[in-house]
């Protein structure tokens, strides 16, 4: 049986108290605990105290700030709430879909959007028991000095496996980070780094308090595609978020701007260069083909998660193309 290590707990009731509690040495934030607790059982971290966000009201809102043209979601909101919210479903369908595809209903009831944004990277060689890892001598991320995915590599390429991160990035979301020095806002696209050991640019003691999504002013079409082996519980093996700004109506609508973001490659979500989509008619079969090719050409998969990298790369093409076809049909 895998046991939790011994740690203290704190349950502050305001954001100010939360920031103060996070200043203690050895403090680690816990939200739903659905990723953190398995990682603690696997001996990946040893916090002295877990600081819970559960009782902090300031992190529990879903606010449509029409003056600022922004949807603001407190990071304590659960994925079930986001998936079930009718207005989010109508105005940001790719986000509602991604939230509803995470894990299983029980996990989504506990799991928060803040935990999904700050989810640790994953790798088939590290998300294992300590006993399993010791048999291969650990790795750069856990007490060893080699990477088993890129044997001559000097940095960790564990995969960013969150379902919502590619979607939020494709929607141009911003994060409100609150810490000892107050609040700073930054684009999600700038929040992640390529280092699988410390893959966010979160500063010491900082909490992601809010995710803010710009409300589009023109017609958009957004979609999320996820491939997993089982229909439930599984992390994505292929993860594609796309967001198109359109001009014109019906079958004549053309693409003005396209943002496509891939997850589960390495530690950072990848924004594709998608300029060649500009000016294409959205409903043309060629458009779906081009999207599939862009995903394949720029999506360099690695053997960091289950399934052979070459196969996952081919699936990027299939799922990219299919996602556009589904979007066109649904309009
Ligand atoms: C069986 C199983 C299947 C899963 N499948 C999926 C899946 O398909 N897709 C997917 O995306 N995830 C999956 N997960 C992972 C996890 O359930 C989700 O990513 C979830 O959203 C994590 O949220 P949480 O609130 O439980 O985070 P926690 O586990 O509490 O925290 C995760 C990390 O984020 C940090 N954190 C939490 N909140 C904040 C905040 N506000 N500011 C700064 N840091 C913060 C914590 O310190 C911790 O390091 C799965 C987990 C399990 C156990
Ligand atoms: S990518 Fe390499 S260093 Fe990182 S967790 Fe996997 S095996 Fe370890």
Distance between the termini: 50 Å
Radius of gyration: 20 Å
CATH second-level architecture of the domain at 58-119 and 159-214: 2-Layer Sandwich
- How would the global form be characterised? globular
Q: What is the CATH level 1 assignment of the domain at 58-119 and 159-214?
A: Alpha Beta
Q: Strands across the major sheet, in which order?
A: 4-5-8-6-7
Could you state the order of secondary-structure elements as H and E? Answer: EHEHEEEHHHHHHHEEEEEEEHH
What is the β-strand count? 12
What is the overall number of helices? 11
What can you see in these coordinates?
With 331 residues, this protein is α+β, with helices and mostly antiparallel strands. Among the domains are: 58-119 and 159-214, Uridine Diphospho-n-acetylenolpyruvylglucosamine Reductase, domain 3 (2-Layer Sandwich); 220-330, Enolase-like, domain 1 (2-Layer Sandwich). Helices cover 29% and strands 21% of the residues. It has eleven helices and twelve strands. Strands 4-5-8-6-7 form a five-stranded antiparallel sheet. The chain is globular and about 60 Å long. The site of iron/sulfur cluster has 14 residues, from loops.
List the helices and strands and how they pair.
Layout: E1 8-10, H1 15-22, E2 27-30, H2 36-41, E3 49-52, E4 62-65, E5 70-74, H3 79-84, H4 86-91, H5 93-101, H6 105-110, H7 113-117, H8 130-135, H9 164-170, E6 174-179, E7 182-187, E8 207-214, E9 220-227, E10 238-247, E11 254-263, E12 270-271, H10 285-298, H11 309-330
Parallel strand pairs: 1-3, 2-3
Antiparallel strand pairs: 4-5, 5-8, 6-7, 6-8, 9-10, 10-11, 11-12
The chain binds flavin-adenine dinucleotide and iron/sulfur cluster (SF4).
């Amino acid at each position: 049986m895998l046991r939790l290590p011994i740690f203290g707990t704190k349950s502050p009731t305001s954001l100010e108290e939360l920031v103060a509690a996070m200043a203690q040495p050895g403090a680690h934030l816990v939200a739903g605990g659905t990723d953190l607790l398995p990682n603690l059982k696997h001996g990946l971290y040893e916090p002295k105290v877990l600081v819970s966000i559960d009782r902090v009201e300031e992190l529990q809102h879903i606010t449509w700030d029409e003056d600022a043209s922004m949807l603001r979601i407190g990071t304590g909101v659960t994925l079930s709430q986001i998936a079930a919210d009718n207005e989010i479903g109508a105005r940001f369908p790719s986000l509602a879909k991604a939230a509803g595809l995470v894990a299983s209903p029980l996990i989504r009831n506990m799991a928060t959007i803040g935990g999904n944004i700050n989810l640790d990277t994953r790798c088939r060689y590290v998300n294992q028991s300590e006993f399993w890892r010791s048999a291969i001598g650990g790795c750069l991320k856990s007490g060893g000095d080699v990477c088993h995915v890129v044997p001559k590599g000097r940095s960790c390429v564990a995969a960013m496996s969150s379902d919502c991160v590619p979607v939020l990035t494709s929607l141009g979301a911003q994060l409100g980070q609150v810490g000892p020095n107050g609040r700073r806002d930054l684009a999600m696209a700038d929040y992640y780094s390529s280092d699988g050991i410390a893959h966010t640019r979160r500063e010491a003691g900082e909490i992601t308090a809010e995710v803010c999504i710009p409300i589009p002013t023109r017609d958009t079409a957004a979609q999320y595609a996820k491939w997993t082996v089982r229909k439930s519980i599984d992390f994505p093996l292929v993860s594609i978020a796309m967001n198109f700004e359109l001009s014109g109506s019906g079958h004549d609508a053309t693409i003005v701007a396209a943002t496509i973001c891939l997850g589960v490659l390495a530690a950072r979500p990848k924004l594709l260069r998608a300029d060649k989509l500009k000016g294409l008619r959205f409903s043309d079969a060629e458009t779906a083909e081009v999207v599939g090719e862009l995903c394949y050409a720029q999506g360099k998969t690695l053997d960091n998660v289950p399934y052979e990298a070459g196969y996952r790369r081919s699936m990027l093409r299939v799922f990219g193309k299919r996602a556009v076809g589904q979007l066109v049909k649904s309009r």
